[in-house]
Amino acid sequence: MADGSTTPDRIILEGMQFYGFHGVNAEERALGQPYLVDLSVELDLSRAAVSDRLEDTVNYTHLYRAVRDVVEGDPRNLLESTAQSIADRVLSEFPVKAVQVRLKKPKPPIRGSAIDYAAVEIYRVRD
User: Fold this and answer.
1) pLDDT tens across 60-78, in order?
2) What are phi and psi of 89, to 5 degrees?
């Protein structure tokens, strides 16, 4: 955002796919299901834009792995707490100002429903 723009610089990873064992129902925890994650982090990208050096930005692979470790890690009951855990991990491990997480559970087990996915989206700012 060094150019005076009011829109923050962002790195975006969209459509990450993982398999996890989250949910309230015993069946969800036993069988697991796919999860889709969209992640956006806010940080100043001006130095990397000029230097063209990986060291001057956040490595996308490291972001991906942090998200993967949460989604494929310890089971949680709710999408909300899983999304919060992703945000907490990103804010603790990377020099970002803010993080937005959209976590989708395709075809959630809602009796009698025809839903593509259930999702939560959270936005957290570094303290």
Assistant:
1) 999 999 999 999 999 999 9
2) -65, -45
Please say if 105 is a catalytic residue.
Answer: yes
Distance CA(76)–CA(127), nearest Å, equals 25
Give the Cβ contact number of residue 20 at 10 Å.
22
pTM: 0.91
Cβ–Cβ under 8 Å, residues 105 and 116: no
- List pLDDT tens digits, range 84-104: 999 999 999 999 999 999 999
Residue 68 CA to residue 45 CA, distance in Å, equals: 24
In terms of CATH architecture, what is 10-125? 2-Layer Sandwich (3.30)
Domain ranges of the chain: 10-125
Check: CB of residue 2 under 8 Å from CB of residue 56. no
Residue 35 CB neighbours (<10 A):
22
Please tell me the distance from the alpha carbon of residue 57 to that of residue 45, in angstroms, as a whole number. Answer: 7
